[in-house]
């Protein structure tokens, strides 16, 4: 019996191993069929941690490579110090350069492997059928080069989610977005995550300033997000989002925000409502897809009250996804 995400995982491993990506994980990936996945993952994490530790010791000069073919480490000996300085320099400099290069290569491979493990964790419970389209080769190498530079756990998680999302739907993340993530700091990533709680159908409602400010999202914060290219309209006056009915028989509109949905209803299918908003940019839409965030209920209730004041019936509910195009609300509550 197949696990929920087995087909997507197979596609991911086919995609990356074909291009020589994630080579440190290949031996464990081949053993997955005969051993419990959780045991394999634990072993992978331990081996990667040891490889990173060894690379750091080489870089700091605490150990040297005794045998480059076997990657055997030894501590520097007194014999090294007994060599005449001018001879030692000629011998040591090429060796130091090679050891530094190897340490850097190991670091890059470890970082890439950790991002791959993050992608695996995202895909392993996803029952989606793999798409017919394959991940673009240039995109994949750009992803590898970028992910290999990141040692921070939070940022590695982002790179893992990017790979998982691209395997599920090739073309989901542009090369421009990869370049953006490559230069993203942990502090900036944390700020973007904070803002993500307030995204409703790719907008941010401007009518709940008090709630936003209480969460540290003031005008300076929003201008910084605009400067990063995540949102737009912060320095504009009167930016309005207008929404129409999704069906012809009566007015019905769905507004999703993380795991919560607002259901807007009215008897007149021609009626529209408006919201003062900031807009999420095209790149911002890709970035905000990378996380799973807690909704801000009080904020969403304020959005609902603003719509209700225009004559609509508004319900707030949780939902689960039926498929890629449909959701099913539950625990509905009228605002």
Automatic annotation (TrEMBL):
Origin: domain of life: Bacteria
Record protein name field: DUF2806 domain-containing protein
Organism name: Synechococcus elongatus PCC 11802
């Amino acid at each position: 019996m197949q696990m929920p995400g087995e087909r997507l995982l197979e596609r991911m491993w086919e995609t990356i191993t074909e291009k020589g990506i994630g080579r440190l994980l290949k031996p464990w990936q081949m053993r997955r069929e005969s051993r419990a996945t959780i045991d394999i993952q634990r072993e992978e994490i331990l081996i990667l941690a040891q490889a990173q530790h060894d690379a750091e010791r080489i870089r700091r000069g605490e150990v040297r490579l005794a045998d480059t073919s076997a990657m055997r480490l030894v501590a520097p000996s007194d014999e090294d110090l007994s060599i005449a300085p001018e001879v030692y320099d000629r011998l040591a400099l090429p060796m130091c350069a090679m050891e530094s290069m190897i340490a850097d290569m190991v670091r890059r491979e470890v970082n890439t492997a950790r991002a791959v493990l993050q992608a695996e964790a995202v895909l392993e419970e996803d029952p989606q059928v793999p798409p017919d389209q394959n991940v673009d080769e240039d995109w994949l190498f750009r992803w590898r080069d970028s992910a290999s530079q990141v040692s921070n756990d939070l940022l590695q998680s982002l790179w893992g989610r990017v790979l998982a999302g691209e395997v599920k739907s090739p073309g989901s993340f542009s090369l421009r977005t990869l370049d953006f993530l490559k230069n993203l700091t942990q502090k900036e990533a944390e700020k973007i995550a904070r803002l993500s709680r307030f995204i409703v159908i790719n907008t941010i409602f401007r009518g709940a300033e008090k709630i936003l400010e209480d969460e540290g999202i003031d005008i300076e914060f929003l201008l910084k997000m605009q400067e990063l290219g995540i949102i737009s309209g912060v320095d504009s006056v009167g930016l309005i989002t207008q929404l129409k009915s999704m069906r012809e028989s009566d007015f019905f509109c769905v507004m999703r925000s993380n795991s919560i949905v607002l259901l807007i209803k009215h008897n007149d299918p021609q009626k529209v409502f408006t919201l003062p908003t900031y807009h999420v940019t095209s790149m911002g839409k890709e970035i905000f897809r990378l996380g799973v965030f807690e909704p801000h209920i009080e904020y969403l209730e304020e959005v609902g009250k603003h719509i209700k004041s225009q004559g609509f019936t508004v319900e707030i509910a949780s939902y689960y996804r039926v498929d890629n195009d449909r959701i099913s609300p539950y625990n509905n509550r009228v605002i």
